[in-house]
Amino acid sequence: MAQSAGSNKIKTAVFISGTGTNLKSLLKFSQIKKSPISINMIVSNNAKSKGLRYANFFKIKRKVYNFKKEKLIERKIISDLKKENIKLICLAGFMKILSKNFIKKFNGKILNIHPSLLPKYKGLNTHQRAIENNDKYSGCTVHFVNSKLDSGKIILQKKVRVNKNETPNSLAKKILVQKHKLYPKAILKIFNL
After folding, report:
1. Predicted TM-score (pTM) of this structure
2. DSSP string computed for 54-76
3. 3 pLDDT tier (thresholds 50, 70, 90)
4. Is 114 a catalytic residue?
5. Looking at the structure, do residues 162 and 84 belong to the same domain, yes or no?
6. Smallest Cα–Cα separation from 24: which of 4, 7, 49?
7. How many separate domains does the chain show?
8. What is the pLDDT of residues 142-164, one digit of tens each?
């Protein structure tokens, strides 16, 4: 059965802070026929985020929030998401930690992509830590978000080899390529497609 664009797709918001390369891959994915999601909103905590330019290009609503008054802002975000009937949130390089209250409101409906093979290297500086520990492999993980940092149920992971002369930068580039493939696969997996 042909499906008109976005008609019965799951309305999704993508939260970003930086360049938006994961957002771009999710946008491309959302436009293919078998994708279960449509991206209806881009949220950022950084008005200078390069990823915001995709909102204009793809004609998607964008919102930038100043997180100085976190509780107040989170209430505003929740209200804005509900107005847009958002059912799924994809964190894609979003550099703010959401409160337990926010996570509870969207329980089981928030995904994140993390640049390590969780449960290893939660938090920041993942590539540096993998290299310092002489890991043979690193990679990326898509997981559900719960109230503990990078600790939610793992959906999918992808390994990459850490070479002898690897730098955090070269490892980050290798992992980024895999992140762009893994996020769409994880979304298909959770919707059993």
Report:
1. 0.93
2. HHHHHT-EEEE--TTSHHHHHHH
3. very low
4. yes
5. no
6. 49
7. 2
8. 999 999 999 999 999 999 999 99
